[in-house]
């Protein structure tokens, strides 16, 4: 891999310049207004794969946003890695809270990233991490050091639930045939503490609507006698947690995997500093499920959070109104072996049951996804382990993440293969938030590590 590594060193600046161009495209998947940018983005990714040396590069149209596919098959007998990532990004809102415009990439130093970080929506999640793969592949192709077959599948709907990717995988089983899926869409613990993600939480997402009187009412004339949907909704939501921050929905914990004492002990050996954690968030205390550590609360335990709530008068000044309706968006993060569909049903049944007389409750399910835990005793995990140990000079720790990538469980179901979650971001990179950024250290470390991954994977696979 010497030639590859020196190719990377020589072309570092150009790699960064090219990433900057991709980050200028506002490929927001949630908002139809950006459809043209989504298509432009898909074309740009396809073009970057072609230039890097991929064959059969195609932008596949779907019922939603396109999927970019490309491959390099050196020999049918060699092992094949399927690289998955997403080129779509979250909306940049609230735009006014960004210190530099979200689609005008800006490089700035931070205390966590003394070598600089690139600030832009999608820099870390996930364009920067997808582009590490394109550039690592380019380097391997340019030097003739690619040791195995590679396929790329880069989608444009991850941030909106990967609605059409499952269908695409089922329809293209043969095209996507591989030995494993490699995903860089997660984080490491710190730049001096590499880690490999070995778990992702699942997701149930619902929107609730509480309807009271048939119209908005004068809160003086009617207030006191008629159920106020906002009062009711907030009370119902408050009742979903008890004083120990357990979730009160009957049956919610029935399938939850009890993690062994040993595994919990091991998990908590990962570096964690409560003072720093709170200081970073600007809070003077934490709140979570009793008898679990912060690391456990955000990885092996299920949660319920309100993501948005609205209703009534929210304009300037005061308006005395008893509103007809109130709404909330509520997400639940799931752990093995909870099932998204079942949890959504349990929520809906419970939420309707606790509604007091005088209101009507509607529950609309949104997208969901299943949790995953990936094994560590596989050639692919070992390859990631060795590759990171080499480039970081330190063995990576296995770590379960609290985030969700719903398609990973589907890869196992549809393609029959395991995934390796070798991400290079940091949890503090503000993904989905204003000032999202990706460390230059992390970007380059990813590009350097990926070739070693292929090298170790090809070697380990030929031994079995
Ligand atoms: N890359 C993230 C998931 C992630 C973030 C995993 C940090 C591990 C660490 C992904 O793009 C994402 O945001 N997923 C969504 C789910 C999706 C269905 C909208 C999430 O976790 O909220
Ligand atoms: Mn992502
Ligand atoms: Mn995301």
Q: Are there runs of 5+ residues with pLDDT below 50, and where?
A: none
Report the C-alpha radius of gyration, rounded: 24 Å
CATH architecture name of the largest domain: 3-Layer(aba) Sandwich
Q: Please give the alpha-carbon distance between the first and last residues.
A: 22 Å
Our count of domains comes out at 2
The rough form would be described as globular
SS elements, strand count: 20
CATH structural class of the largest domain: Alpha Beta
- CATH fold title of the largest domain: Aminopeptidase
Count every helix, treating DSSP H or I runs of 4 or more residues as helices: 12
- Give the biggest beta sheet: 6 strands, mixed
CATH superfamily of the largest domain: Zn peptidases
Please, what is the oligomeric state? Answer: single chain
Helix content: 25-40%
What class would the helix/strand composition place it in? Answer: alpha/beta
Strand order of the largest sheet: 1-2-6-3-7-18
Bound molecules: ligand BES, manganese (II) ion
